[in-house]
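Instructor's aside before we start: the two examples that follow are unrelated to each other. I chose them only because their records fit on one page, so don't look for a connection. First example below.
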Amino acid sequence: MKTKNILTALMLLFVCAGTCTIISSCSKDDTEENGPSGNNNGSNENNNGQQNQEIVVTVDANGNADGGHYFTAPDSKTFFVDYIKYTIKEGHLVVSGYDETGLKSINGKATIVSKIIYKGVPYAVLEIEEAFKNCVSLTSVTISNSVTSIGSSAFYYCTSLTSITIPNCVTSIGGWAFDGTAWYNNQPDGLVYAGKVAYKYKGTMPNGTQITIEDGTLGIAGEAFRDCRGLTSITIPNSVTSIGESAFKGCSSLTSITIPNSVTSIGGSTFSHCSSLNSITIPESVTSIGGSAFKGCSSLTSIKVETDNLTYDSRDNCNAIIETATNTLIAGCMNTIIPESVTSIGSSAFSGCSGLTSITIPNSVTSIGESAFFNCSGLTSVTIPNSVTSIGYYAFQGCI
C-alpha cells in the first residue's frame, strides 16, 4: 500500500461495553486507507474524523517548560514531563516510567508528548518501553503521533486503564502490552486491534479457523496468535511491515503462510513450533529475522528467499535461510543442503527438525551455534569437518 499526504488526519473512535474506548489517530503522512481499531471485525461504524494530536514541549536554559507543563530533569539523559519519564536513547526519547504520586494527582490521565526541545536540542519520542507495567492508577493514556513502537508489557495489568489513544504511525506492539487492562478485558472475543496493529486473538479459537487481517493494518503484535491451534490459514495484507515476536508460535495447524513484500521485520520465535508448516518464502523486503524464528517447524520441507533480498539468501537452492553478509545459516529444514560458502551454522538453525535424518557440514564451516540441531530426533548421520573449531551448548542434544 503506497502512502499519500493528506491534509486532515482521521481519528477512529471505538466504544466497547459502554465504558472503554480506544482512539486511533493518524498523522498527515499516514496512509490514505484507514485500518481497524479496537474491535474484532474492522468495522468503521464509529469513526469520528478529527485532527491528529501533536504535543511539543520546549524547555528553556533555566529548566522551565512552556505551556504550563510540569518538568524536571534528574540528569542530562532523563526528563519528566507531566509525571511521565522519558530517557534519551540513540538520539531520541523512549518512555521509560512514571512518577506514581504525580500521576495520581492528575487522576491517572497520562499524555505522551511528541517531542521535547531541551535547551535548544529537539528529541522526538519514538518508543514506549515496559513503562507502565502494573500501574493500577493509570486510567487513560493519549499517545502523540511521533511514537512508532510500544514495547512488551508496556501497559500490562494497568487494571484501571479504560481509554487509550494510539496514533496510526504505531507499527509495532510487543506481546502482552495491553493484557490485563480494563480496555482489553472489555473487548469481545476474536481478533482485537490496537490502532493499526492486529494486537491479539482473544478467547478460544475454533478448529479450522481462517483469518484475514484487515487491509490497512501496519503490524502484527508479538504473541498475537500464540498457541492458536485452531488456526489453519491467515491472509496478511500488503500493508503490514512487521510481525512481532512469537506472533504465530505454537500454531500447530497452520500449514502455509504468505508473507507480503511489505514486511521488513520478522521477530524472534515468530513461527516457532508451527509443526504443520510445510513451506515458507521470505520476500525481498525482509531485512530482519529474529532468533529461533522457525524452531520446531518439524514438517518444513521448503525454505526460499526471494533472489532480490539484499540481507538474506537461499544460495544454490539450499532450502535454507542464509544471512548474506556473515554467511551464517540461520534456518534450515529436513531438505537443506548446506552450501560450501557457509561459514557458520546459527543458534537453533535446525532445532526441532525431527525429519532431518542426515547432514553434511562442508569444510567452510568453522562454528556451530548453540542448540543448532537440538531435538533433531531423526538425525542418525552427521559429518563434522576438522574446520569446525567451535560447537555451542546443546548443539546436538536430543539427537539419536
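Example two begins here.
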Amino acid sequence: MSPGEKKALAYQKDHRIAAENPHQFRKNWPRKEARLNRRYRRRVQQLLDAARRYTPEQQADLSVIPVRRYMARKQGVMPLGRWVEMRTSGRAADALGHFFSQPYNPTLHRDRFALLVTEAMVGHGLYARSIAQCLNEILADPPLPLAPGRQWRVRSYRERDWLAAFLCDAPDWDERLRAWIVCAGEIEHPVDTE
C-alpha cells in the first residue's frame, strides 16, 4: 500500500472527537445542561414578574410571548478527513478575514493580498482549494460548486466591496482569479468527506 493510499485510508477510518476539550466532557456536559435550564427558568421568571406588574390587557400580550427552551446537543465524532478539511477551511477563512476586517487600502493591502493569492494559486492542496472556495463565494452569485456537499455561505457586502475595490485597483487580477477558481474546482478533492 502506497503512502498516499495509507493517508486516504486513515482519513476515512480514523475519527476525531468534535468536542473542544474531549477529556473535560464528563464535567462540562452537566454544566452545559444546567446553564441552559437556568437560562430557561430565568426567562420564564422575568415574564412572570412582568405579568404581575401589568394590567390584564398587557398581560394578554405577554401570554403569547413564547419562551424557547434550548436543548444541549452532543457533537459526537467525525472522520479525520472531515476534521482536517474543517480546520484548513477555517484557517483559509481567517487568512482572508484578516484583510476583509478593514476597509481596502491599496498601500497596505494590494501587495500582501496579491502575495497570498499567488501562493494559493501555486499550491494544489486543501488550503489552496479552501482559499478558492472562499473567494468563489464572494465573487460568484451563485458560486460555482467546488466541494461536494459544501453549503454556500452568503458573504457580507463588506467582503464583496473589499474584493471589488481590490479588483478595480488591480484589474489584471480579475481574469486570473476567476480562471484559477474554475481550475481549482476541476482538481480532484484530496480529502474524502464520507
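Helices lie at 3-13, 25-53, 56-63, 80-100, 106-122, 126-139, 157-169, 172-186.
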